[in-house]
Design goal:
By secondary structure, the protein is an alpha+beta fold. The protein has two domains: 3-39 and 124-290 and 328-440, Outer membrane efflux proteins (OEP) (Up-down Bundle); 60-101, no CATH class. The chain has helices at residues 3-13, 15-35, 62-76, 83-97, 127-193, 199-234, 266-286, 334-400, 406-440; strands at 41-58, 103-123, 292-307, 310-326. The protein has a four-stranded antiparallel beta sheet with strand order 1-2-3-4, with no helix packed on it. α5 runs antiparallel to α6 (199-234) and α8 packs antiparallel against α9 (406-440). 23% of the residues are buried.
């Protein structure tokens, strides 16, 4: 599998990536819910009730008649009828007409009410527009969080992939070292057989041969662990047999741009958006200072209730239109202090952005230095391997003609094996450090 294939599989299977997808969708729906406040809010209410309530009551018409007649007599004969006499006349007329008080019966039975209400905000002091901008900023922050999670996965898969490449190369080094020792072992055994070498020489080779077998076993275990680590990251079974495509690009100098800036980093963009969010919170608190104006429209109907066996309401329909104005006047400077607190939080966020930006610049420079040192180390390791290969060639030639001892030849082989292993390790570290620089420079996808 290629590195790109592994990255693609990790993107598809990683649960953190899938969680950030849901996070982005959550913020998108939240922003849309805020945006809906620009539009009218229409609601329908309907009630249908049935009640067995049935009762009656006497309507008092005698008292108004008595009062009316008493007042009329006093008005007609003002010099004869005073207030005390007028009250007596009213009482007697009321008593005489009490049998005329009618009995009123009413029944609740079925009653239906329905209404439709429309509410439209006209001016809210910028509260809705500010909330909408905050919602859009939230979507952008969530999107950057998603991108940050993707970058993290790319770096982890890259390091795991290169670790597997390193493990396979270490296995090749161990096998080559073992092959050299096997060849020398045959030569020494032949020499012992013909009396040209001692058993001590044979034992020296056997010891080195055992060491080579141990290195092979360690390298094979390293491959197994590196492969399981990569399988875990890309969502495949841990026992999957994955072989990496080994490609060496050891020229890192031209890839490190000294003019690179942290402004391309996802974290930097998130800091900017967070500061903007803090500024919008200041605007949100200021909106509480402003008056709020809205329109209200209501249309409804009522049907039901009986009075004297006649329906009292027969689908009565009514319409109401109004305006609602709310002007904040005084609340012990609550809003003023909220605005001041929001401003302080905004300034804190600006300082935090400056501090983290400085740290990111420092990290970028550190990663660039690491790449430069890794490049130099890689060149030195290559040169060292070439020298060790030449030394091994000369030692083998000298040993074959009896000009060098077996111990010197074995030492040359150990130096060659160590130089080869160091080159593999340096190549792995150089690639990892290059990837870390790309992350620090915001160039993961390049």
């Amino acid at each position: 599998m290629t590195l790109d294939e592994c990255v693609m599989m990790a993107m598809m299977s990683n649960k953190q990536i899938r969680a950030t997808d849901h996070l982005v969708n959550q913020y998108k729906h939240t922003q849309k819910s805020v945006y809906a406040n620009f539009f009218p809010n229409i609601s329908l209410n309907a009630t249908d009730t049935y009640s067995t309530l049935q009762t009656s009551t006497l309507m008092d018409i005698a008292t108004p008649i008595g009062n009316f007649i008493g007042q009329q007599i006093q008005n007609t004969f003002p010099f004869v009828v005073n207030d005390a006499l007028r009250r007596q006349i009213s009482q007697r007329v009321t008593q005489a007409t009490q049998p005329l008080n009618p009995e009123i019966e009413y029944k609740a039975k079925n009653m239906l009410t329905a209404s439709i209400t429309l509410e439209q905000p006209i001016y809210t002091g910028g509260k809705i527009s500010t909330a909408n901008r905050m919602g859009l900023l939230g979507v952008k922050i969530a999107t950057h969080a998603q991108e940050l999670a993707r970058e993290k996965i790319v770096v982890e898969v890259y390091e795991a992939y290169q670790l597997l490449v390193k493990a396979k190369e270490m296995t090749e080094v161990a096998h080559k070292y073992d092959s050299l020792l096997t060849e020398i072992d045959h030569q020494v055994k032949s020499a012992v057989k013909h009396g040209m070498a001692s058993h001590n020489d044979e034992m020296k080779v056997a010891v080195k041969k055992s060491d080579a077998e141990l290195k092979i076993r360690q390298a094979e275990n390293g491959i197994r662990l590196a492969r399981m680590n990569l399988c875990q990251l890309i969502g495949k079974p841990l026992d999957s047999m994955i072989d990496p495509v080994i490609q060496h690009n050891e020229d890192f100098v031209g890839l490190v741009d000294k003019d690179a800036s942290v402004t391309n980093r996802t974290e930097y963009h998130m800091l900017e958006l967070t500061s903007q969010m803090a500024y919008e919170k200041v605007r949100m608190e200021k909106s509480a200072y402003m008056p709020q104006l809205g329109l209200l429209f209501n249309a409804g109907m009522i049907d039901g209730m009986q009075l004297q066996d006649n329906k009292l309401f027969r689908s009565n329909f009514n319409v109401a239109v109004g305006a609602v104005l709310k002007v904040p006047l005084f609340h012990a400077n609550e809003t003023k202090h909220k605005v001041a607190a929001a401003k302080e939080a905004f300034h804190q966020e600006l300082l935090r952005q400056e501090e983290l930006t400085d740290k990111m610049n420092l990290d970028l420079q550190q990663q660039a230095n690491d790449v430069d040192e890794a490049q130099l180390e890689l060149q030195l390791r290559k040169r060292n391997l070439e020298q060790c290969e030449e030394n091994l060639h000369l030692s083998r030639s000298a040993y074959s003609v009896g000009m060098e001892t077996l111990s010197d030849l074995l030492t040359a082989q150990v130096l060659w094996q160590e130089a080869y292993a160091q080159l593999v390790e340096s190549r792995y570290m150089a690639k990892v450090k290059m990837m870390k620089w790309r992350k620090a420079a915001g160039r993961i996808q390049q």
